Every structure is written in C-alpha cells, then in structure tokens.
Amino acid sequence: VKITVIILAAGQGTRMRSKLPKVLQSLAGRPLLAHVLDTAEALKPEQIVVVYGYGGEQVREYFADRELNWVEQAQQLGTGHAVQQAMPRVDANHTVIIMSGDVPLVRLETVRNLASAAGDQNLTLLTVDAENAAGYGRIVRGETGEVLSIVEERDATVDQRKIKEINTGLLACPARLLGPWLDALKEKNVQGEYYLTDVVSSAVAAGVGVNVVSAKSETEVMGINDKLQLAQAERACQARIADELMLNGVTLADPQRIDVRGQLKCDSDVFIDANVWFEGTVKLGRGV
C-alpha cells in the first residue's frame, strides 16, 4: 500500500502566548514539527503534505531543506476543512495517514500499526484510554464494542463525557474513501467547524470497517497547547532519550539529569555524568 502523510500544522497556538507559531516551539532543542516530520519520513511515504496557516512563511522557511508539499489553510475552519485542502494533492490509490504537528511524541511503531490496520479497505483510529479525558473527543461504541462515532467534548452529553477512550487526532484511511466523506462534511456543531472526526459516522453508514489502534500511553499522544504541556512533553522526551541511550550501551550517572537539545550519537563504553547537557548535533567516541 502506498502512503501519503498529511500533517496538520495550521494552528496559531494562542494558549502558548507567543509570537512564534506553535509548531516551531522547541522540544528537546528542535521544533515540535521536526519531531513529527522525522516520524513521517521514517515511514517512507510517497509524499508528505503539510497544511500550514498561522506564521506559514516562517514555518516553510525553517523546513525549506525538506522534501515537502505545502498547502495553506487560509481560514481556520476545523480539522476536516484542513484535510480537505490537502486532498487534491493526494493520489486516490494511496492510503492517507493524518498526523498532527503538535503531537510530537507518537512512536514510529504506533503509526506503522495504524497504517497496517487501515490497509486499503478500512478507516483506522488511534485512541488511548485517558485518566483525564477533558477536552478530547470521546469514542462512542455500540453494544458489541463496534465504533459508532467520535463526539467532541463540547457536543457530548453528560454520559458521553464519562467515556475514558479518547480520539488522539491520528487516523489512517484509503484516500478513495476519505475524499467523498470529507466532501460530505457539514458544520452542524457548537463551533461551526468541519470536524474530521465526523468521517467516522460516514464510514459506519457506508458499512466500512472502523478499526482502532491503541497508543501505549497517554504521553505518547499528548497534544501540546500551552507552555505547561510543553514542559511536560520535554521531560517525557528527555526520559525517552535517556532510555534509548542506556539501551544502546551508554552509562548515565543519573538518567533524570541529562538534557539533549538536538541529536546525540554515542560509540561504545561512553559514560555521561549528571547535569550534562548537549546542544546541536554531537557525537561521542568510544570510551568517552
């Protein structure tokens, strides 16, 4: 199955209280969008389409050295509208993976599972069971566990808000199915937006299978909307980097007191003391 990745990166991120576009905010020394692009590129898709909006020229300039297709979402009319802007660039025979520019910690393995479960026949959602589901769309299931719809929190009933399984915003779907469902979207919701999540109801109505892939943790799929969440993601990202270094044979005096702001590569028998930070691209030789 050939893949096109669409990355939604048009949001202003007003809660960041920053003039810098949200997807250029720094995580482990690199923009949020850089982390998402690394994962997308590792899938070896036919193409990557980035939907941009606020601060678009700044975002495009930063990633000018990458092979990307850029599509502008001039008006912020919701996630469904954003994907609509990208679809004319997508081959109807491809499977589309939709990622978010502000969900940087999602693992390559997870996205691969998402694409595999969709194949060329099904709509597949990435979900997670959340301790605190506030602010997220809920996965509504039928009596036998089948997915019926996704209900955004602001449109949810009191009972639906008690559901713990949430939509992460990532999905995979054959383009030939997704295109017509997007064209059929209507803005019948509290926000007056075109929700991408409404394609689930279209799939159910069409008798198309709706699969679910579960993320391993809430941290992996956390969306970053403010500086508090950015700081939480930073710690999670640094912990992941420390784990990877140790699994590759690096000795860390204190895994909680290392900061990698860029990329660090280590040869064998490397020891890193506490309170050390690395910036940019760094390589440590054997026995350092």
Plain-language structure description:
- Residues 5-123 form the MobA-like NTP transferase domain.
- It catalyses: N-acetyl-alpha-D-glucosamine 1-phosphate + UTP + H(+) = UDP-N-acetyl-alpha-D-glucosamine + diphosphate.
- Keywords: Nucleotidyltransferase, Transferase.
- Its EC number is 2.7.7.23.
- The chain has 288 residues and is of the alpha/beta class.
- The protein has 2 domains: 3-221, Alpha-Beta Complex (Spore Coat Polysaccharide Biosynthesis Protein SpsA, Chain A), CATH 3.90.550.10; 227-284, Hexapeptide repeat proteins (UDP N-Acetylglucosamine Acyltransferase, domain 1, 3 Solenoid).
- Helices cover 26% and strands 28% of the residues.
- The chain contains 7 helices and 15 strands.
- A hairpin with a 2-residue loop joins strand 2 and strand 3 (30-31).
- The chain starts with a strand and ends with a strand.
- The relative contact order is 0.15.
